[in-house]
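[job 0412] stage=fold_complex status=start
inputs:
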Amino acid sequence: MAEIRFHGRGGQGAVTSAELLALAAINEGKYAQAFPSFGPERRGAPVVAFCRISDEKIKIRAAIYQPDIVLVLDPSILRLVDVGNGLKGDGTLVTNTRFSPEEIKDELGIQTRLATVDATKIAREELGLPITNTTMLGALLRAAHLVDKESVIEPLKDRFGRLAERNIKAFERAYNETRILEQGG
Amino acid sequence: MATRVGMEVSIAAAEAVKQANADIIAAYPITPQTHIVEHLSELVNDGELDAEFIPVESEHSAMSVCAGSSAAGARTFTCTSSQGLILMSEIVYAVASLRLPMLMILANRSLNSPLSIWNDHSDVMSVRDCGWIQVFMENGQEVYDHVFIGFRVAEDRNVIIPFMMNIDGFMLTHVIEPIGLLEQEVVDRYLPPFQPLYRLHPNNPVTMGAFGPPILFTEAKKAQDEAFNKTMPHIIKAWQEFGDLTGRYYHPIETYRTDEAKIVIITQGSLGETASIGIDMMREEKEPVGLVKIRLWRPFPFAELREAVKEAELVVVMDRAISYGGPGGPLAGEVRSALYPQESRPRVANFIIGLGGRDVAPEDFVQMVQQAKAQPGEWYEIYGVRE
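[job 0412] stage=fold_complex status=done
writing structure:
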């Protein structure tokens, strides 16, 4: 089972990100679960969402404390929230940042595998908004083959309707532009 | 062919209400409320469900509309949560005594104070004795399925009693997971149209909810109690026939690894699946522990419970509500009552957990079993308090 924790700010779509990933996995015939960290919704406040993907029925109904992957949708959160908390030693941190993985590694002292992409820039250029949920999904799938890239397209079209094409473009661009620093690299 | 889709559990519940072809949906449309009602209002607005959606000014009015709707012979649905249930509770009792069948989904959440919007079972326990059939759901599939089962049982002429589905707020309502949807033709075969025995109609006047002076009241209550006590076989039959149609069978209680279990954990609602992982962890360590999940809360399955724990020496009951000044949580009280007539009965330890959205992990069940083994006597404890 893969456990992924999403960090974002209210309004950026961390919950949508987790949901789209779960829907893609379920469409592939896998089992998946997505849920927000429950609480009053406040735009701009740090929020967390969770996703589990498994080949077998998922029975656990608790938050994720030791994720395999942490996905950070907003670069400013890196310095506010302990995003790496509980991240498995062989896990991956995937973050939105304009810096390179090497720079982030040194600055934050991250020991795990690391993937970075300037999702805010891509989202601004493709969507005209700094909303990075679909963009960061591209980075996530580049860093870890949780589902086939194509499986995300249908849930993305369902969710975004006429805005889907632009989101798909942002998703594809992030997939291609993500840089990965292997552990110990 | 049934289809398997990823869906938020609340949306799946609303889709089931649509497939059940409800006539009237009355609900208070803002907090505390779920996506169930929001999605139903969209389905009605978009013409996908031919029903009256009646948004009301309070939950008291919601249940009052439901009373009139059911009395007029309409298939009736509502949905609420926490303080909303408390506000409607006067009429919740009334519709049961009036024998007005309907379905209510209660997204279980805590009660004030402190102010909390999160999940526990204190709301439903406040109406434990209201005279509704009450079930606790463990996952999204059970929620979807029980919309059909609930209408069928409530409207069954052998029952004619309202049906309440408890689904854990957030832990179920806000989770996206795979749900197997039924073909409309299967739903239609399982759930016949509502045909009430009596209905309010100007051309054919009847009296419902008449004055009950002391010379009549006891007899009316005796009749209600007897009718309620006869519901169990009809509930079991509705589950059996649902299973025969869909392959998904349900029972008053479910057991997990209770064979030769000297220790049995008892849960209600969505905790059951998490607890089963804790059971697997303990079984790995050769701990003879099993799990009993109480699906049917009212009528309470006393005989089934006794059978399920007959080999146990220790029963550890997980409650998600407090009964202040009582013997522990409400579930533990029922379990002790069930076991009391037996000549030899297991010791009952009781933890109150998961209050107001406090997360419960599989490891917590391991820890609680260890504590229950080590600490003799009958007791209850609020678990996981930060000191």
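[job 0412] summary: The mean pLDDT of chain A is 95.
[job 0412] exit 0
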